[in-house]
Design brief:
The complex is a heterotrimer of chains A (219), B (219) and C (208). Chain B has helices at 28-42, 48-56, 60-65, 68-82, 88-93, 109-118, 172-175, 193-197; strands at residues 137-140, 159-169, 184-192, 206-212, 216-218. With 219 residues, chain B is α+β, with helices and mostly antiparallel strands. The chains are: A alpha+beta (219), B alpha+beta (219), C mainly alpha (208). Strand 4 of chain A pairs parallel with strand 3 of chain C.
Chain lengths: 219, 219, 208
């Protein structure tokens, strides 16, 4: 979606402000929000693409005024409620008020290391061949879905070159909507800075994105 | 600039919510905010393009959290500070502390009435013949200036047709930075909805914008 | 022009509101049997203490001393890094980016905060914030200036926007004056920021 999260090229946010000796978490609740989010992925009620959409799918003013983990927490609440795992009256009460909806599995402490090490690989098997090869000239489509996509606005309509054929990967645009993994060929596409930003752009700049085949047409 | 004001095509703001019997101003202070900004125009403290540039430069999180007249008031504060009309201490105190050095005349009610009746026309004499004529196919440039511009991001790089020659008008990109009026030919350019939003979008939509000649190149 | 960055510093009341809400949710999930509290603690400890930029520094130091590993790293980042025991979450698909005297790489995720957790741990706040996400793809030199880094004006800057599950690790140039150093000592020169592309490795003389 063309939400506030699609920030590439936006002006006015001010300087980058690194914090010296920044702690991993700025408050105790952030640690819990982080860990709850990871742990609640285990029951398999949603996938990572749905999580990302749940984070970005909000009023732009809200998105920009919430802290990083406030957004994570809000998205977690939303997904739990959408799937009837937790209800509004329960979050108000601060307690479970009814029997839990059964889930396939939960994360046990002993399994954490193994689960983290397995991660979430997105590559899938295929007999198909990629439409593009390194060196090919492609153009990013001008798509404006209201649903989840990973094609940022700043590259849409612009011409670039295939740098690498990454592999055959789960397609977030489908997966986030619950329409299945629908894996597609995934490429690294490089764009000249001036192609993206105009003749006044930095001539020494190249920007790449990782783009699935449905985002691209031959240039 | 690519600020928060450049909203065309953004998702996530929710439905349009018309208010039945909406008053012109929702609070008395709003009327005063409105009037103060009109008066500063009559007093020629700054030009309208500079005002718009200042308003859109408000960092996106703040911009999106302020109400419409909240933005006007905030911009007025910032302009007064930048143009030496008031000091930070005076703004905090809520009254003048030092006498105003440039002492513009006090704007009278008669002058205001005159301004409302006559407005402030932006057309100027032409420095050169118009480059384009009605029916010409043009492309909006892919430009991303950090300064004020009136070419929205959603139009940049897209092909359209000149449907009207408006006239020769003050050029905001220059005027907003106090670099002079630099008048240029102004056109109404019509874009097909699918050109702007992609092949899947509504085929019955056309969008027109007013675009100054420097924003356009022949197709 | 003033910049209001209060939105990423919690005020007292905001802090306690988030504490209450998080605790309430955790209680509910626990009561429903969806989480085991010890699992939550292990997750926190893992990312607070165990997985961090020292992993990536080890990878870079090895690439500096071992030409075969270096070649493998650039050909198949996932496998080479995996051989050191790093991988998994946000590290299933890793690509190493080679800085050279004429090319400088920077990594960003404009759309959210994708970051190579497996080798760098969790990202710092600035990486996830609007200024970095918005400016790096358009004007990286101004971002480098915010970090006090200035590159020659003809250096090519390659910015990699992590839009898929590929995670990128920048391999910075080995500083001069560290010839003959052990991998362990070299790793101390490799800063987290140098592996994102917003910094350069430490100078050997800066190590006490």
């Amino acid at each position: 979606m063309n939400g506030a999260q699609d920030m590439g090229g936006v002006h006015g946010f001010g300087p980058v402000e690194p914090e010296p000796n920044e702690p991993v978490f700025h408050a105790g609740w952030e640690k819990r929000a982080f860990a709850l989010t990871l742990a609640m992925a285990m029951p398999g009620q949603w996938n990572i693409d749905m999580s990302r959409f749940a984070r970005e799918n909000r009023d732009p003013g809200e998105y920009l005024s919430m802290s990083y983990y406030q957004i994570w927490f809000a998205a977690l609440e939303t997904m739990l409620k959408e799937r009837d795992l937790v209800s509004d009256d329960e979050t108000v009460a601060g307690h479970a008020l009814r029997e839990p909806k059964p889930v396939a599995r939960i994360l046990s402490p002993g399994a954490v290391a193994q689960v983290l090490y397995r991660g979430g690989p997105t590559e899938r098997e295929t007999n198909t061949t990629p439409a593009f090869k390194p060196g090919d000239h492609v153009r990013a489509k001008n798509i404006n879905p209201r649903t989840h996509t990973r094609l940022p606005r700043y590259v849409r309509g612009h011409a670039g070159t295939i740098e690498r054929v990454i592999g055959f990967h789960v397609f977030p645009d489908s997966n986030a909507q619950g329409a299945g993994e629908n894996p597609q060929w995934l490429y690294t596409v490089c764009f000249d800075g001036r192609e993206l930003w105009g003749a006044d752009g930095d001539p020494t700049l190249t920007v790449s994105v990782d783009a699935w085949e449905p985002y691209l047409v031959p240039a | 600039m690519n600020g928060a004001a450049d909203m065309g095509g953004m998702h996530g703001f929710g439905p349009v919510v018309p208010e039945p019997n909406e008053p012109v101003f929702h609070a008395e202070w709003e009327g005063h905010s409105f009037a103060l900004n009109m008066v500063t125009g009559v007093a020629k403290l700054w030009n309208l393009d500079a005002f718009r540039f200042k308003r859109e430069s408000i960092p996106p999180p703040e911009y999106l959290s302020l109400s419409y007249y909240g933005l006007w008031t905030r911009t007025l504060e910032l302009m007064m500070l930048e143009y030496g009309v008031a000091t930070p201490e005076e703004v905090a105190a809520g009254h003048a502390i030092a006498p105003f050095k440039k002492a513009p005349h006090a704007v009278s009610a008669a002058e205001c009435a005159n301004m409302v009746r006559c407005g402030s026309p932006y057309n100027r004499s032409a420095p050169a013949p118009a480059l384009f004529k009605v029916g010409d196919k043009v492309r909006a440039r892919n430009m991303h200036p950090q300064h004020h511009t009136r070419l929205p991001r959603y139009a940049r790089g897209h092909a359209g047709e000149v449907v009207r020659i408006v006239g020769c008008h003050v050029f905001p990109d220059s005027n907003a930075s106090n670099l002079g009026e630099d008048p240029h030919w102004l056109y109404t350019v019509r874009f097909d909805g699918r050109e702007l939003w992609g092949a899947d979008s509504d085929p019955t939509v056309r969008v027109c914008i007013e675009a100054w000649e420097p924003y356009l190149e022949p197709l | 022009m003033t910049h209001d960055h209060d939105h990423h510093h919690d005020h007292g009341s905001e802090l306690s509101e988030m504490q209450l809400r998080t605790r309430a949710l955790e209680t509910i999930l626990l009561e429903k049997g969806y989480i085991e509290p010890a699992a939550i603690d292990v997750l926190i400890e893992t990312y607070e203490k165990k997985i961090g930029p020292r992993n990536g520094a080890q990878v870079v130091a090895k690439a500096w001393v071992d030409p075969q590993f270096r070649q493998w790293l650039f050909e198949d980042g996932t496998a080479a890094i995996g051989s050191l025991g790093f991988g998994g979450r946000s590290g299933n698909h890793l690509v190493a980016l080679e800085n050279t005297p004429s090319v400088h790489n920077m990594v960003v995720c404009t759309l959210c905060s994708c970051y190579p957790w497996a080798v760098l741990g969790l990202p710092p706040l600035w990486y996830k914030s609007a200024p970095y996400r918005s400016r790096t793809v358009a004007d990286p030199r101004s971002v480098l200036a915010d970090f006090g880094v200035s590159l020659p004006k003809d250096t090519e800057i390659r910015v990699w926007d992590s839009t898929a599950e590929l995670r990128y690790l920048v391999v910075p140039l080995r500083p001069a004056g560290a010839e003959g150093w052990s991998e362990e000592k070299l790793a101390e020169l490799v800063t987290r920021d140098s592996m994102i592309g917003t910094g350069l490795p430490k100078n050997p003389e800066d190590l006490a």
